[in-house]
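Table S5 (text form). Sequence records supplied for joint modeling of the two-component complex.
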Amino acid sequence: MNAPAVARAKTHERIVVVRLADAAEAITVLSLAFGLLLVLFPVSFPKMIVNSWEHGQLMPVMMVLALLLDACLYARIAVMRSAKPGIVAAVCLGSLPLLVVGGLSLLLQGAVSHALSGDMPNLQLRVGEEILAHTYLGLISAVFLPFLVIRLLQQFKATNS
Amino acid sequence: MPDWTSLKWLGWISLYLVPVVFLPWALSRAWVHQHGSDLQVGPKRLFQRGELGLLGLVLASSVIWNLLQSQFTPHTIALGSVLMALSGIMAASVWVETYCRESGENSWRPARAWRDSRNLALLVFSMAAVMEILLDRFAKVAGQ
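The corresponding structure-token record, covering 305 residues in total, follows.
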């Protein structure tokens, strides 16, 4: 086998190295889109989120959205780096978004119970704002945290090898 | 109907951008002009060691402070604070990594440090903006 062919084969064997800055780009766009929707539709957008939470549709939708975003982002990084996806990263990206959204759903239940237990004015509106904040933070966490874990695992692996 | 009053956070965040980004750039331009140097000073060159990551940490700290002052439930405050802190720390760690690489024997790539710090600072900036909109909305509801 000649030298260029060996180099090409090595490139194909290399597992993709994720940098947090790659994921940061996509999360910035997601974040700005959420903010823009809040500014442009200050009533209807939060109402849609609260309604879907009341009907139990918010968390499944967030899980699917986070999984799709993470998968697309990882595939894009793999194509950009001309490297093949790793099995550990695939496991992280397949499980962590679901775990994060599931865990934050429990936290949201706790926050809503806490808000309802207090004797405060505008209780319904307060609960709506809590749901809105948790939806935003949940989406960001579900995309950011898996890539942070992959990045730290890569660092750990590089230190040990 | 759009709620443009929520955009007041833009003025608040620009208070951080002016002294941290534009002032050093303007001062360096003034220095080049004064000394008749042919040095090409742009943001990419000025912040090539990942200094923008430090801006991210400062911005994250101020949003955490605002969150702690808010009337959100402790659950929301904790979640928001942890997420802001994580993104701020990761942004600042770009500068730390670059400093260590530059000081040590590891290869230092200015283009990578600039790109990483810029992307992470933009992430913190966008998160800070949305958190301020959410805080503003909640303050209006709590104040009614």
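Note: Chain A has six helices and no strands.
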